Amino acid sequence: MVALSVVGAAMLLLAAVAVAQPDSADCVMNPSRLSCKGFQLEDRMVNDMVKDICSEVGGVGCTIRKYCTTDKGICSPFSILTTLCAESPLARGCRTYASLCPRTSLVDQCRINPVQIPFTADIEVALEKMCQYTQSDACLETDTDVIEKWRDVCVAKDWPEGCERLNAFCRDHRQTSISLELCPPPPPPPANPPPPKSPATAKGYLHFVPSDTFLVPTWELQSWPGLFSAAGFAIAAGIGYAAVTGARHRREAFWLRQGDHEDEDDAVRSQLPIPGSSRRSSVASATGPTRRIFGRASESPERSPLLPIGAGASNKGTFCNVVKRGEYALWGVVEGLAGSTLILMVVTGNVLLIGGVATGIGVGRGLFSA
Asked: What's 299's DSSP letter?
């Protein structure tokens, strides 16, 4: 009697379990039932679906499955199935998954998210952009999976722009789920990296500290030898500026002497007698515009300073005047550039550079003064 009662109790318990846990067909067809909350597809069935999808359309999930080192986490069969069906929802092997995991499904297994990695089409677009700017042999590969090609390009370019999502995927799963063959470790940092240099900045006050930028941002004075070499350059620049200024003064003196000679020639020509007009000349000299005032002959209207430059002059004089003005303008440009360079040195506020500029100008004036 006792044995029969035990057997009967066991049969009732099995019947209750069978009622509480519906079969797979019921939960696949109607996953919104509350009794299907704990239902799970068997790994054997899931693996068959994954194989069917990989043989039909492929996808990133197939590559991840190839390099998995465990069957947990992102490498669990249902996680691989979720990734494949998110990329190819119309594949033949995704029919059961689509029926089991609609938006209204209450099955906890359907809450597993796809692996956080771009799909095949997105990776191909990224590879096309990356290979436009690199000559890597990996861009010529045609017999490798798209993720493997992405890996090869990223490794060849030392994880450049375009590899952020692959780098993040490998960083999260390299030590736990994914083989190093797919996710090689990043290159190690240099053994002894040089200490970072303090940024060079110009100071708005007088100082001696060698930490300025000199003329251009890449010319940094981070040491005393560099500062003294810059001071030597400042001396040479000051001498050059004085040489340019002296040369300009000499050219101005030359043109002034040329003008004096032309005035003397005009005066001589104006005093020459005109044949047959001696009487008119004498009368004009007494009463005309060339009469003497306080013992000196007045200037003729032709040389009056009130007339514009070149008025009454010959064509030769007009041409020389144009040349002279052009030369004045050229000397002004050269002298302005040289002076601007000296200003850039002085505004650093460094006493050695200011002293170098002043010394150079002084030496140059002594050598090249007009």
From this structure: P
Amino acid at 355: G
Query: Is the model's pLDDT at 242 over the cut of 80?
Result: yes
187: pLDDT strictly greater than 80: no
Q: Which residue has the tokens 């050219």?
A: 251
* 294 φ/ψ sector (left φ>0, alpha ψ -120 to 50, else beta): left
Q: Cα separation of 91 and 59, whole Å? A: 11
Please give the distance of CA 133 from its chain centroid, rounded to a whole number.
15
pLDDT over threshold 50, residue 3: no
Q: Is 145 helix (H, G, I), strand (E, B) or coil?
A: coil
Q: Are 263 and 303 in contact (CB under 8 A)?
A: yes
Token pair listed for 365: 């004036």
Closest CA to 235 of 104, 70, 112, 353: 353
d(CA 362, CA 235): 9
Q: Which amino acid is at 274?
A: I
pTM: 0.47
| 132 alpha-carbon distance from chain centroid | 18
